């Protein structure tokens, strides 16, 4: 049997704020199997982003155990964590974070080049993803020339470009109107399912959460 994509054991994180300690995560246990799409819901301030940062190996300061694709993150140095992120993870944020001076196509080609994919293959993959997202007529546009929904579609394509085992998404459609949000999320789920990636998607939106394989809820720093 293959390793879970993510296994969190008693994950905890506190912050000091004006001399007061806030325990944001208080012993989170969660396992995500390959190909499983999990919605992470909880009210504002419940720690969803903090948890995604932990799983994305983007921040230190956590206690407990974080295993990604069978590797215990605490045993890795910073270069090894970067490699693990690059090889196994894809990220989508609420705001697109695309490179402003590059076209939509180039924004999806670049992460593939970093993995050693040939330029020709990277372009084919970028165009296939953009086509699947209905952006075949926007490939040469820079992000500032795209609508919010189009920008988020490009961000989705970029996150999926390297077929990561796990996609981490923090309110990926949070800045879009409801109709666009539903559509972009549907396209995202279809592509993620189609390529067999797992995903952990933080959202406030129960309707969007219900479209995923499993919903987990953060409450008082734990998963209910
Ligand atoms: N670097 C930090 N320093 C101090 N407090 C922090 C820091 N990062 C997060 N927090 C606090 O941790 C709590 C959880 O924040 P987090 O952003 O993880 O919540 P969230 O569930 O993602 O919220 P939202 O849905 O509003 O994005 C908040 O009370 C926040 O103020």
Task: Report what the structure shows.
With 224 residues, the chain is an alpha/beta fold. It is globular. A hairpin with a 2-residue loop joins β1 and β2 (20-32). The longest helix has 18 residues, at 178-195. Strands 6-7-8-3-9-10 form a 6-stranded mixed beta sheet. A 4-stranded antiparallel beta sheet has the order 2-1-4-5, covered by helices on one side. 35% of the residues lie in helices and 27% in strands. The two termini are 27 Å apart. It has a single domain, classed as P-loop containing nucleotide triphosphate hydrolases (Rossmann fold, 3-Layer(aba) Sandwich). The protein is built from 7 helices and 10 strands. The chain binds adenosine-5'-triphosphate. The site of adenosine-5'-triphosphate has 12 residues, from β1, β2 and α1. One of its GO terms (biological process) is protein localization to outer membrane. Pfam families: ABC_tran (PF00005). Keywords: ATP-binding, Cell inner membrane, Cell membrane, Membrane, Nucleotide-binding, Transport.
Give a short overview.
The protein is an alpha/beta fold. It has helices at 48-55, 78-88, 104-114, 119-132, 148-160, 178-195, 206-209, and strands at 6-17, 20-32, 37-41, 63-68, 71-72, 89-92, 166-170, 198-203, 214-219, 222-223. Residues 15, 17, 22, 24, 42, 44-50 line the site of adenosine-5'-triphosphate.
């Amino acid at each position: 049997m293959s390793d879970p994509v993510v296994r969190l054991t008693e994950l905890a994180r506190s912050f000091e704020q004006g001399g007061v300690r806030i325990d944001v995560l208080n012993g989170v246990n969660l396992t995500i199997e390959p190909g499983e799409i999990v919605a992470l819901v909880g009210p504002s301030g419940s720690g969803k982003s903090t948890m995604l940062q932990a799983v994305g190996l983007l921040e230190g300061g956590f206690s407990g155990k974080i295993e990604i694709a069978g590797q215990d993150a605490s045993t890795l140095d910073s270069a090894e964590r970067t490699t693990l992120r690059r090889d196994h993870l894809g990220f989508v944020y609420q705001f697109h974070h695309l490179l402003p001076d590059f076209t939509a196509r180039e924004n999806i080609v670049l992460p593939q080049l970093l993995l050693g994919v040939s330029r020709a293959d990277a372009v084919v993959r970028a165009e296939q993803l953009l086509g699947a997202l209905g952006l075949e007529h926007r490939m040469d546009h820079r992000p500032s020339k795209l609508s919010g929904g189009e920008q988020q579609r490009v961000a989705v394509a970029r996150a999926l470009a390297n077929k990561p085992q796990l996609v981490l998404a923090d309110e990926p459609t949070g800045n879009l109107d409801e109709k666009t949000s539903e559509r972009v999320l549907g396209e995202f789920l279809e592509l993620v399912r189609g390529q067999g990636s797992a995903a952990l998607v933080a959202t406030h939106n129960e309707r969007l959460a219900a479209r995923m394989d499993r919903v987990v809820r953060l409450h008082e720093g734990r998963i209910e």
